[in-house]
Every structure is written in C-alpha cells, then in structure tokens.
Design the sequence.
C-alpha cells in the first residue's frame, strides 16, 4: 500500500479550530478515524495516522475555549 505524502502543511485559520484530521478537503478513500490535533507552541501539528502536517496561519486569531 502506498502512502500519500504531503509536502506543504495544511494551513489553518482560527475558525478551523479545534484542528482535526482527516480534514474536509481529503478524499473519502484516504479517510481514517477522526483525531483531534493539539497544536504546539509554533502552531504546528502532525496527524499520527497519515502524517499530514498542519500549521496555523500567521496572524490567525485563536479564541480561547
């Protein structure tokens, strides 16, 4: 089974939080169980299932939960 690798991270805005994978733009065939992602201090996260990288957009407004 081949694995799809993504070179550019998926950019997230504040409205996209809480971050989760798979994201709505992923094809149905590549779906895996939904996992919520915790962004690190740099606004980055990596999906433990498929390895997709996520990054908070510069200047994104994050509302406290």
Sequence:
């Amino acid at each position: 089974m081949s694995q799809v690798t993504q070179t550019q991270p998926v950019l997230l805005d504040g409205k996209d939080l809480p971050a989760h994978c798979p994201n709505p733009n992923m094809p149905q065939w590549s779906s895996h169980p939904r996992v919520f992602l915790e962004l690190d201090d740099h606004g980055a996260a990596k999906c433990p299932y498929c390895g997709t990288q996520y990054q908070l957009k510069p200047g994104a407004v994050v509302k406290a939960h």
Notes: The beta strands are 10-12, 20-21, 35-36, 44-46, 53-56. The chain has no helices and five strands. The radius of gyration is 12 Å.
